[in-house]
Design goal:
The complex is a heterodimer. By secondary structure, chain A is α/β, with parallel strands linked by helices. Chain A has 25 helices and 10 strands. A 5-stranded mixed beta sheet of chain A has the order 2-1-3-10-4. In chain A, strands 8-5-9 form a 3-stranded antiparallel beta sheet, with helices on both faces. The chains are: A alpha/beta, B alpha/beta.
């Protein structure tokens, strides 16, 4: 049924969330912009007269700009944790360069004959700045603010990764859940925001200098008002959940926690990349991790038992195009070499080596194959090329590297890897659009994200790993001409996790314990 | 209001832009600093309102040491017209003119009255031009607004840095003529920088020819022409010498050699005009003779090419 829901129906149904995300988005953009203007404008003015300082400041701001936005957010976590502060800081740093540079350029672009005649008539330095240089530089400065605004509306979507809210919650949730309506419900408003802000600022830019003086008084007031839309969603006392956008929208995730466990704790949306660390640093208490994640070990977290069995099995197995398998039947043998070889604890250990010990996935894959005596030297054949894809986390990188070594050692084929393809939707689309030939997928994901069977079918099979595998295998073959090869062995299912110390002190062992604890807490309030 | 500079120098990174020069501009006189680019004439001018601080030397205006005053306050009392007019493009004509009076905290009625008066003199009626922006004016009009801006607060001293430099030759001649006729300017002590010899000769009561940071010769146009101090002066004026001489010599100076007209009529020229102007009249109207009047006595004489030539030669020999 869900597939037939129109975008409009989705937006109406989710209008509460949509509004709060939109306001959070506007707030994030405006606060960071305001701070960037307050900081960048005086700095740009200051360096306008100082060549050396200008070189240094512009260079530094330029370097900041080249850091990928998601990486910049990542750098913020150890410094500022998660939530609004690091998000605003990162957005502020992004907005800085266009504002400083355009202020600098604008002021230096004022005809020196004009400033000299101003001096010659006896105007002071400040009078020249405020009456001559700033008004004449204003169109250029405003162009910089415009650039910064549009950039910030875009980058602010990434704030969802570190629990700062905004329209990114829908966008990334939608990508993870293969839900186009959800993606569009986030993407369209954020694109509209960019267009509207840009348009409004273009109006300001077109005003003549006279009116601009009046408007420039109101502009900060408007910015502050818009900024106040944004209220920090983090609460202090209760147990706080930090869940990935994908988990938030899934029946076998947050929705299931609410319907089957009646678990009702305050939550923030956060990226998988920073979630574990945030839990470790006590920024959040309960997270939606994966049971084989290496960071489980690294950050001393425990998984809570899923006593009502809402999380279906997630057995990893290679998912491959049938036409590729027909063309190169020897692939099956090479890929099956890994079948049944890795259990949960081995996978956790391998992930730990990559995520925490910072070993490269290539090395971890090679070491493992060597220890199991599965490694063979590459044949350097040139029979053809197989394109391997992976999602954007360590386990997939390790598996893809193992498959690369196995294919190149056991067949005459060459391997091209395209790692880091984001979420399930991106990998799956790449596979069906013939951009990659195979990637490692999880049976639960195939079932719930791609196939989306009816509730009765789901209830019938979801508790049993064999049944899920058989169903997924036959349906994928029928619908998409994709083949699930034999599972690798481990089950990387969803699991709720807490800090070991906190779980022990509150005596929480399973999800029902957590539910009981949180409803008692709520009751007291 | 006398401007006196004594032994002033300016050094930029060990290079002497202005090298120990002294000069004096008498009240209500115009002194022109003439020279090629890089000779130090603009630097000299800007030291007078401290846009450039002199490295050494003394400057006084009407006996008062300029270094004793705050630069901003000093500048508000000296009119300044910068190169390429320097009007504020985001200010209207009226606002541009009001800059200095506002700094001096004049009442707005006073500003209004004075700028109307000035704009009227400069043939830019305030009603029509007051609310225009500089970009909407022609080059010549812009230059007149720049002049009005420098004159509005009635400064006794006026500094002009290549004031006609941005204008095309024709507009330039027109604006210069207006400049000469403007009553406001007759009462000013003016220092002006130019590289245009003709302009210098036309406008300067006193001309200081500069080279490599020094004043090579200072004097009236005729002094420079007929008693050049050295080869540099001779060469500098050389290629336009004949024109300059004819411009510098007034008809009055050859008056005695001209024949009187028997029947007085309305004369074409006056005796205070130059030989050059007489030649222009002769050639423009394709006439053999034109008439000249002596304003004082009212007598009228005729002048022709040959008479003009004789007078010129005689004058040259006598110098």
């Amino acid at each position: 049924m869900e597939e037939q829901q129109s975008l409009w129906e989705f937006m109406v149904q989710q209008s509460d969330k949509l509004w709060s995300q939109t306001f959070a988005h506007i707030g994030l953009t405006c606060i960071s912009l305001l701070v960037a203007v307050l900081f960048g404008l005086p700095l740009g003015i200051w360096i306008a007269q100082r060549r050396k300082a200008a070189w240094f400041v512009l260079g530094f701001a330029g370097i900041l700009q080249t850091i990928p936005s998601i990486a910049l957010l990542g750098f913020m976590i150890p410094l500022l944790g998660i939530g609004a502060l690091p998000a605003i800081t990162a957005l502020f740093l992004y907005a800085l360069l266009p504002i400083i540079r355009n202020t600098y350029t604008g002021i230096n672009g004022v005809d020196p004959a004009i400033t000299e005649s101003a001096r010659g008539m006896g105007m002071s330095k400040w009078q020249i700045l405020f009456s001559i240089e700033l008004p004449l530089a204003m169109p250029v400065i405003l162009a910089g603010i415009r650039t910064a605004t549009v950039v910030n509306v875009g980058v602010a979507t990434l704030a969802a990764y570190i629990a700062a809210g905004g329209l990114g919650e829908f966008i990334f949730g939608g990508i993870a859940l293969n839900n186009s309506n959800m993606i569009l419900a986030g993407a369209i408003p954020s694109a509209l925001l960019a267009v509207i802000f840009d348009f409004l600022l273009s109006l300001v830019q077109k005003l003549n200098v006279k009116r601009l003086r009046k408007v420039s008084v109101f502009l900060p007031i408007i910015l502050v008002t818009l900024s106040s839309f944004y209220l920090t969603p983090l609460s202090q006392n209760e147990i706080l959940g930090g869940f990935t956008p994908e988990f938030m929208g899934r029946e076998d995730g947050y929705l299931g926690l609410r319907s089957k466990y009646q678990l009702n704790i305050p939550t923030v949306v956060i990226s998988d990349a920073v979630m574990y660390k945030a839990a470790f640093e006590k920024k959040i208490d309960v997270i939606s991790g994966y049971s084989t994640d290496g960071r489980l070990k690294a950050y001393n977290l425990v998984t809570l038992e899923d006593d009502k069995k809402i999380f279906p099995p997630y057995n990893a197995a290679p998912l491959i195009r049938e036409d590729v398998l027909e063309r190169y039947p020897e692939l099956q043998h090479a890929l099956d070499l890994l079948a049944g070889k890795i259990n949960d604890s081995v996978m956790t250990e391998l992930n730990y080596k990559v995520d925490y010990l910072k070993q490269s996935p290539e090395k971890v894959a090679l070491d493992f194959l060597l220890s199991k005596d599965l490694y063979k030297k590459p044949t350097d054949g040139n029979k053809g090329v197989v394109r391997l894809g992976s999602k954007i986390f360590a386990e997939q990188y390790i598996l893809v590297n193992m498959y690369k070594l196995l294919i190149e050692g056991n067949t005459e084929l060459k391997v091209q890897t395209r790692t880091g393809l984001g979420g399930t939707k991106i990998c799956f689309d790449a596979l069906t659009n013939n951009e990659i030939d195979m990637y490692p997928e999880y049976t639960g994901t195939g079932l719930l994200v791609i196939l989306k069977p009816t509730r009765t079918k789901l209830n019938e099979i979801s508790g049993d790993r064999e049944k899920v595998f058989d169903y997924v295998k036959s349906e994928f073959s029928r619908k998409y001409r994709l083949n699930w090869l034999r599972p690798i062995g481990f089950n990387n299912a969803y699991a709720l996790m807490m800090r070991r110390t906190q779980a022990q002190s509150l005596n929480i062992k399973n999800i029902s314990d957590l539910k009981n604890y949180s409803s008692n807490e709520n009751h007291q309030h | 209001m006398m401007v006196v500079a004594e032994n002033i120098s300016k050094t930029f990174n060990d290079i002497k832009a202005v090298d120990d020069i002294s000069f004096e501009v008498k009240e209500e006189n115009t002194m022109v600093l003439l020279g090629t680019s890089g000779c130090g004439k603009t630097t000299t001018l800007k030291m007078l309102n401290r846009l450039i601080e002199a490295s050494s030397g003394k400057i006084s205006i009407n006996g008062q040491d300029i270094f004793e005053r705050r630069p901003e306050l000093l500048r508000r009392t000296i009119g300044y017209v910068s190169q390429s007019n320097g009007l504020f493009p985001h200010y209207t004509v009226a606002e541009n003119i009001a800059v200095v009076p506002k700094l001096l905290k004049w009442r707005s009625e006073k500003i209004q009255k004075r700028s109307d008066e000035l704009l009227h003199q400069l043939k830019l009626p305030a009603a029509e031009y007051g609310s225009k922006y500089p970009g909407e004016l022609s080059g010549g009009q812009q230059q007149r607004v720049a002049l009005a801006r420098a004159l509005i607060s009635n400064p006794p001293v006026l500094l002009m840095d290549e004031p006609f430099g941005a204008l095309d030759p024709i507009t330039r001649t027109d604006v210069r003529r207006e400049f000469l006729e403007l009553p406001e300017l007759k009462k000013k002590t003016i220092l002006m920088v130019t590289h245009d010899v003709q302009e210098a000769f036309e406008l300067g009561d006193q001309i200081s020819l500069m080279d490599q940071g020094k004043i090579v010769q200072s004097g009236t146009a005729q002094e420079l022409l007929f008693k050049p101090a050295n080869d540099f002066v001779r060469k500098f004026l050389g290629h336009q010498k004949f024109l300059l001489e004819l411009n510098a010599i007034k008809i009055r100076e050859i008056w005695n050699d001209l024949p009187e007209v028997s029947v007085p009529e309305n004369a074409d020229l006056t005796d205070s005009q130059s030989l050059w102007e007489a030649m222009e009249q002769l050639s423009d109207n394709a006439r053999d003779t034109v008439t000249v009047t002596d304003r004082n006595s009212g007598s009228v004489k005729t002048i022709s090419f040959s008479l003009l030539h004789q007078g010129y030669n005689k004058l040259k020999k006598s110098r």
